C-alpha cells in the first residue's frame, strides 16, 4: 500500500531525527521552529515548506529525495552506517592516544626524577590515572556520549581521591574518600540535569 506524501515525509523525518539522537525540541531549536511544528510534521498532519525541507536535508546530510521518497531515509541511513562505526573507532583511538600520551609523560617524569634526583616518584603513575580519566571525560562530553561521560567522570573523581590519599599516605588521610560520596551524587545529578 502506497503512503501519501505527508506520511512518507513524516516517517522519514522521524527516522532521521532518531538516528541523530535528537528530541523533537532539539531539532526544533536547530531549525528555529517550535517542537509542536516538528511533532505535527512527524505525525503526518502537515508538511514543512520547501525551504524547511531543504534545511532539514542539509542538517541530516541527505538529499531532498531522502525526505520525500518512501524508504529513502532508511537507505540513506544504511549508507552512513559504516562511517558512523568508523567515527566510533576513531574516537576510541583518540581516547587511547590521549591516555598513552599521559602515561608517556608520567614515564618521562619518572625517568628524569630517578636519574637526576635519585628518587623514585612512583606516584606519578598514580596521578596519570585521574588525568587520563579527566581527558576521556572531556572527549565523551564533547562527543555527547553522556553515559560514558558519567562513568569516566566518576572514575576521575575516585582515582583523584586515591591519588591524593597515596600522595599523603603518611598522614593517614583515608577520610578523603568521604568526599567521593557527594562528588559521585553530584556527577549523577549533573548528568540528569544536562539530559533535560
Report the strand count: 0
State the secondary-structure class.
Answer: mainly alpha
What's the overall average pLDDT, rounded? 84
Number of domains: 2
Please bin the fraction of helical residues: over 70%
Count of runs of 4 or more consecutive helical residues: 9
Could you name the ranges where pLDDT drops below 50 across 5 or more consecutive residues? none
- Element order, helices and strands? HHHHHHHHH
Quick one: biggest sheet? none
- Intertermini distance: 39 Å
Which tags fit this structure?
2 domains; 196 residues; elongated; 77% helix; 9 helices; mainly alpha; 434 Repressor (Amino-terminal Domain)
Task: Please sum up the structure shown.
The chain is an all-alpha fold and 196 residues long.
Walk me through the structure.
With 196 residues, this protein is mainly alpha-helical. It has 2 domains: 5-70, 434 Repressor (Amino-terminal Domain) (Orthogonal Bundle), CATH 1.10.260; 86-195. The protein is 77% helix and 0% strand. It is built from 9 helices and no strands. The protein has helices spanning 5-20, 24-31, 35-43, 50-60, 65-68, 72-116, 123-142, 146-167, 180-195. The radius of gyration is 24 Å and the shape is elongated. The protein starts with a helix and ends with a helix.
Topology:
Elements: H1 5-20, H2 24-31, H3 35-43, H4 50-60, H5 65-68, H6 72-116, H7 123-142, H8 146-167, H9 180-195
Amino acid at each position: 500500500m502506497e503512503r501519501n506524501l505527508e506520511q512518507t515525509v513524516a516517517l522519514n523525518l522521524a527516522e532521521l531525527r532518531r538516528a541523530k539522537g535528537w528530541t523533537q525540541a532539539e531539532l526544533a531549536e536547530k531549525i528555529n521552529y517550535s517542537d509542536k511544528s516538528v511533532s505535527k510534521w512527524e505525525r503526518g498532519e502537515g508538511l514543512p515548506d520547501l525551504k524547511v525541507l531543504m534545511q532539514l536535508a542539509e542538517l541530516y546530510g541527505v538529499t531532498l529525495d531522502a525526505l520525500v521518497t518512501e524508504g529513502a531515509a532508511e537507505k540513506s541511513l544504511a549508507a552512513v552506517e559504516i562511517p558512523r562505526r568508523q567515527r566510533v573507532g576513531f574516537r576510541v583511538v583518540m581516547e587511547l592516544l590521549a591516555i598513552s600520551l599521559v602515561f608517556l609523560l608520567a614515564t618521562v617524569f619518572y625517568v628524569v626524577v630517578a636519574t637526576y634526583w635519585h628518587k623514585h616518584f612512583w606516584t606519578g603513575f598514580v596521578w596519570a590515572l585521574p588525568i587520563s580519566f579527566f581527558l576521556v571525560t572531556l572527549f565523551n562530553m564533547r562527543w555527547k556520549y553522556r553515559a560514558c561521560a558519567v562513568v569516566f567522570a566518576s572514575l576521575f573523581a575516585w582515582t583523584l581521591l586515591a591519588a591524593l590519599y597515596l600522595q599523603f599516605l603518611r598522614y593517614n588521610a583515608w577520610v578523603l574518600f568521604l568526599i567521593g560520596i557527594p562528588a559521585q551524587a553530584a556527577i549523577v545529578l549533573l548528568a540528569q540535569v544536562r539530559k533535560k
